[in-house]
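Worked example 2:
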Amino acid sequence: MEINVDKNDYSIDQIYSMYKNWGIEFQPDFQRKFVMDDRKASKLIESVLLGIPIPTIYLNREIVNVWWEEKIVLSVIDWQQRLTAFCNFKDGKLTLKWLEERPDLNWMTYKTLPSKEQSILDMETLRCIVIKEWSREDLKYEIFARLNQWATSLKPQELRNCIYRWNFNNLLKELANDKKHHVVELFWWAKKEESKRNLRMEYEENILRFFAFRNINDYDSSMWKTMNNYMAKNQNISEEELKSLKKLFFDTLDSVYKSLWEDAFMSYEKDKWMFRKFSWSVYDSIMVPFSEYRPIDIIQHSNEIAEKIRKIKLYDESYHASAYAASWSKEKVKYRSEVIRNVLKEVIWEKNTSENRCFPNWVKERLWEENEHVCWICHQSILHKEDAEVDHIVPFSKWWETVYENAQLVHWRCNQQKGNRVD
């Protein structure tokens, strides 16, 4: 890989001046939000005042349009958290605490810091490697990934956000920040402290978890590898596939919310006799099977489904074992989803077979993958999934079972023309 770089020295005061004048970007799209706590930030300031050497900083130089004119801006590839801490301190947003080597400075802000210490901080030189704007576009991401892939401070989804950065990653961000659906209502634990909501990309990670767990056969040796593999495989899927996944997620979330309400993903705390603890294992055990049915089929039977799931949370010890402790093995992920899937099958599928003309979504998905997108009536290719319907091989009126063995994929127009014939 070809890298064009400059080596520059900037003082902390120069970095701060660029920050105030839009000359440096601390939050490029691959960076996480600021999460450094006051203790670590205070220790960082103390380190500078003690003369401890500062590691090299990596920046990317790029040309951007600011207020309709081109401007050279530096974006931070590595050291974003610490540079933000310096600027926060100079802005008066940080009060020094927990200092051990310089306890005399505890409870001081930048303005109340003695002049000598202010000068030491402002004049501290930071060695910077700047990637020039004509270098390969993806180098900043590659450097960020290599610098951070062994760092324990990065959460797994924050690293995926850098490495698998294409349109599927953008979809996860879009879904996590959607205000019109029920993400916040169902991921309710984040409302405990709105100011820190989703700082570590928990929403994005668990939306990814939903997509990755839908095909249990692709489950790898761990949950983390499974999600990594899914993102790697789908990081640059088509716009049509993105729309389909977006619709699937919101439809599923909608049916869950309207059926189970805000305690949908709560586990049952037996010793306290209440539903209080949010559980991501309960979340995937419900979201995955719910995604296999149309929302209307679930919502029509919502009271019965909600009561059966409530009893499972209360009394099913096998479900508890698969969802509440050491719950990441493939067998446990599969089992807990199967428990909820059996509820839906009993209420929607078997109990109402004589009335149910509609196949669940999973039947269409499976046929779409298995028959090479061919209509079994006209034997022509089906170009778009939206043009496909699942049809009874033997018509519903002549054989009442709406089961996978009696299903075929067809053009919706062909299905309308077929009528009651057995082809």
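The first helix runs from residue 12 to 20. Residues 28 and 169 are 14 Å apart (CA to CA).
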